[in-house]
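Morning run. Coffee first, then this:
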Amino acid sequence: MILPRLASLRENPEPLELAELPVPTPGPGEVLIKVHVCGVCHTELDEIEGRTPPPKLPVVLGHQVVGEVVELGEGCSQLKTGDRVGVAWIYSACGQCEYCRNGQENLCAQFRATGRDANGGYAEYMVAPEAYVHPIPALFKDAEAAPLLCAGAIGYRSLRLAHLHDGHSLGLTGFGSSGRLVLKMVRAQFPGSKVFVFARSPAERAFALELGAAWAGDTADTPPEKLDAIIDTTPAWKPVVEALKALKPGGRLVINAIRKEDVDKGYLLRLDYPDYLWLEKEIKSVANVTRQDVREFLELAAKIPIKPEYQEYPLEAANEALYELKTQQVRGAKVLRVG
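And here it is:
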């Protein structure tokens, strides 16, 4: 599956086209993976619509990849053929800069993203550096594991950056795959904490309550109490401004988004300093994930355990899955079955 051109999905609801590509050959330090499934992520919409465009086209999208190692490149020693593995958003980093040396490879200037800077998992085969390929716990089916590699890992990083403690209140603006997994993490790890969900869709709000949220409202609704932390997973600016208003003094807003759309950028003009930012409120952005984030979350998800809800589509229906994601026809993660 390749991306032929950048376009708005509302103007072109079928931006991807099927193509025959040669099976790639793993180079030194790389493994060849036969793809079983690949999750569908909002970041693919950002790539297609130009908010985080691939550096060159065509490119194979997809960064929530689960499959089987079928060939090892020269020098590989950690994996073996037949291993079930996953590939996440982090495809590689330089390994030498100050950020990589300090465990912050997500900030590396040479960070490469799977499905953007290198071909990803909307295909039958892909290659990836062995060092950035993750063993999948046996507990999870392929389609259950795929959303954990992105929505789960980035949600895990966001929750750590929120500095939540048991008894603290957490808000979630937007309730996609990442928000749903964060809600499950909080309920398992912080039983004394309450989660408040802000979402435009009545169906998403109802789903949040089903999964154990203490309250669910629209984006601009006022929660029944001020919140210690809020994680924003939306592509818009309005939820950011509204979230700041809902924070306690000293509260922290964690923005988990690669890009924000310009459609409601003017909403920032409503940001009134005394109501929204004063009293030492903080804003923290999330940038990518590290290998450690992915592996720690997979271990945690297996231990709790956390299993995502998902809807499965054949690879040939990738355009349909993306369009439903764009138009918020979402209940559970969307996963492509390959082959």
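The first helix runs from residue 42 to 48. Good start to the day.
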